[in-house]
Structure formats: C-alpha cells, structure tokens
C-alpha cells in the first residue's frame, strides 16, 4: 500500500530547484516526493512553503530565494507570472528557447522515438507580440475592472500592461474599461450569474493596424450603447469594427454564438505572406503573425512542394496554410470542422483571386477516411491539429493514401510524440530535424514542424 505524502500543508524547508514542468513550475524534491513551485527556476536554492498536498505531489510557494539562477530574468512584472499570462517570463529568453527544445527532446526519448531536435527559432523582440486579447471583466472593490485571474483561481488581478500583448491593444482595453465605468455598465458576476459585461476582446491587424473591439455580454440589452460606441470610435481611430457578442450561458466558455455589429464592419483585414485575410470575432487566426510566417514558410520549404502536387490541408481553419502554398502547387484540398472558418476560408480565397483551393466542412478524421476511400492520391499532407493531436483513424487514412510527405505542425509536443510513433509504424520516418518555433514567447506553449517521409 502506498504510504502517505512525506510533507504537510504549511511545512517549510530549503531545497534546490531541479527541473521545470511543462506548465513552467519549478520542481523541488522532499525525500524524492515532487513539489511544484511557482516562480522558481532550475539551479536556484529556495525556502519553500507547502500550499497544497496531493497523493503523488504537492504545490509550494517561494518564501525566500537563497540563491538565484544565472538564467533568472529580474526585469519582469510579477503580475505576469502570478496570473499565468507569461509563466516563463522569469527565465532569460535564450534559456526559454533551450527549455522548449529540451521539452520536445525529453518526450521523444521517453517514447523511444529517434529524433534530432533543432534549436528553437526565437523572436528578435519576444514581448508585445499578441494581436488578440480576451480580457475578463469583473467588479473589484465596487468598480468595473479588467485584468487576469491569479493562477488556479478566480481572483481577478487588475492589470494594465499585459507584457506579451500588442501595446496598442493594452491601451485600447484601458480606454474601453474607462468608458464602461463612466456609463456604469455592470460587470459580470460569475457566481450569481448577474451583470452585463463578461469580457472585452480586442484584435488588431499586425500589418493593417485595423482594430476590432468585441464586447461580450450576458444580456442582449447593452445600456447607452450609442454613447459607448461613439466614445470608443472617438478615442480609438484605428477601430474599424465594434461588435457585441452575446453569451447568456453559465459557462467559462468566453464567446457566445450570436454577434451583433454595433458599428463599422463585421470583419477586419490583415496580411500574411502578402495575402489578405478577413478576420471576424470568432475567426481562428494565429495570434503571432511574425512567427506564423516563419512557421508556415518553414513547413512549405520542408515539404519541397512541386508545381504538379496535390496537397491536403487538414484542420485548414480560415485557409492560412492552403492559401499561402496554393500558387506553388496544382491543387489544395482543405478540411475544417468550424463552419464560420470554412466560410472565412472561401471568402479569403476569393479575396486573393485563388482558384485552385477547395474547402470542405467536416471532421478532419472523417474527411480523410472519405478521401482515402475515394482513392484521392495526395503528394503532401499538412496537418495542423489542435492540442489533442491526431486520431488513430486519421493517421491510418492519411498514411494509407501514401503521400511522399506528411508535414506535422504541432502545438503540443506530447501528442506529436504519441502520433509520431504511429506514423512511423505505418511506414514513414522523420526526415531531418524536428524544428521548434517559439510562437508564444514567455509562455510554456511549444510549436514545431516535423516532416515524415514515406520509406523507400
């Protein structure tokens, strides 16, 4: 029988930080029992206070740092770390890049899959890059407040500088907050399920500088809406679209399905690879366009596309990959499960005069099987799945179509490594190095590109 944990709540002890978890928490050990500690990095010696004990691990906080790591970044606002906006911001940037490379390498090793992991491609300026913000609105000390939740809690920390967001978006959020305060719009109360404003979302085109403000409300009625709209447009000349998104459900899902255009256009435009994209309030559009261009360029280069290739783009979204590679190949077939994204993709194809791309609405795994049964013979398949990775059915159908290459763009190394084992078993090998790209600096998210080539 397993003995109980060797630590108790509020216990204090000194220890060395030996590792970092995939959530960016420092790991210390007490009699080989792991304790996860916020804002502690490997190589540091800390005095730890135990805050919560589970059966196989515990959580702790740093009471005092007795020895700093040379990799510690002291020049960061602690709010960014305690809220989880930027959980790696306490690490110097080159150490963050190394951490991400090591995370992928360790996972491949554990799965006993041979792979060379290249150094992570980083950003020249790894702050202020996010082109989209979804900021919760709550009442704090009797006042409507915008900020971010403290890690693992529902306590809102008031914040004005979000560190990783476009500074123009940060300014816009303060402007909107102050206007909502002026007109006494009630902030949402999630416990009583009362109040009006739940979230303020702002998107800003990196190249176009067009801005969209979305007010997510619990109720259809928004008081003094004309005055609010007038003040927002007066204060923020970049705004091209103001939308009310209605989310009446008692849920932690941020957006509802109903959108009302309060002013301006229903979309904003931005550019990627010189192509124009229309972005709506619910569109999936990469939040870091600077590295997205690097990521997709790399994926296309590694695919070694040829003019007569037939390409499948699974999880095609609003068509970003499909439309950026279309001119290099004969035809692209895209599949995407979100109806709005498929409509966006078709509109974006039209907007750019691209005629050799066909988008299908459906589940990628089901459509892949359908294409396989219809004896479609793609030369290259791109997959860019959500965090849960690929299904075994999709991998079987994709590899049964025998493309020369399968290019896997991953946002979760754990599912990439799991899927890699099955793809290799189905007659493929990893070509060249797995290439991590730092799409989300200061956070624990890791993007990468892996090319699987059919065995001769």
From TrEMBL:
Q: Which domain of life is it from?
A: Bacteria
Q: Indicate which residues the UniProt annotation says bind S-adenosyl-L-methionine.
A: 286, 315, 336, 384
GO MF annotation list = rRNA (uridine-C5-)-methyltransferase activity
What InterPro entries does the entry give?
A: MeTrfase_TrmA_AS, MeTrfase_TrmA_CS, NA-bd_OB-fold, SAM-dependent_MTases_sf, TRAM_dom, U5_MeTrfase_fam
Q: Which keywords label this protein? A: Methyltransferase, S-adenosyl-L-methionine, Transferase
Identify the catalytic residues. 411, 411 (nucleophile)
A GO biological-process term: rRNA base methylation
Specify the protein name.
tRNA (Uracil-C(5))-methyltransferase
Organism name: Weissella oryzae (strain DSM 25784 / JCM 18191 / LMG 30913 / SG25)
What is the taxonomic lineage of the source species?
Bacteria, Bacillati, Bacillota, Bacilli, Lactobacillales
